[in-house]
Amino acid sequence: MIAHVSGTLLSKDLDRVEVMTSGGVAYELAIPLGVYESLPRAGETVSLHTHLVVKEDGWLLFGFANAFEKRVFQRVLNAPNVDPKVKDPGNWPAELSCRPPRCIWRSFFYGASTTGGFRSTASSPSIHAR
User: Fold this and answer.
1) Enclosing domain of residue 60
2) pTM of the model
3) What CATH code is carried by the domain that includes residue 51?
4) Which of helix, strand or coil describes residue 78?
5) Same domain for 108 and 82
6) What is the tens place of the pLDDT at every residue in 67-82?
7) 96: three-class secondary structure by DSSP
8) Which residues is 63 bridged to in the sheet?
């Protein structure tokens, strides 16, 4: 598992970054919009917490600004009552990546209702696609 990537930021886009490590290996990571907003300029040092999703059609490496964001992502992926469309990170709607992790965490675990496909009750938290 790749838990953390640090190195020189080669390029950044709204949903992806490329990071060159000191060992000469470049990683492409999918990122939420909130991470993009906190990134330094290309050529500067960056450090991201990562989660690797292995699927039958490929591997996806996701980057997060901190461990909390990574844990929220992992909880959503492993939750039992999550609609399969939402569980597939490749299908996540754009507004989900824009949502602050604390809002996602609160809505999922404490029953608060939000837009963007999250619905939860205290007895049975669940997430559904729109």
Assistant:
1) 1-65
2) 0.69
3) 2.40.50.140
4) helix
5) yes
6) 988 888 888 777 776 6
7) helix
8) 50
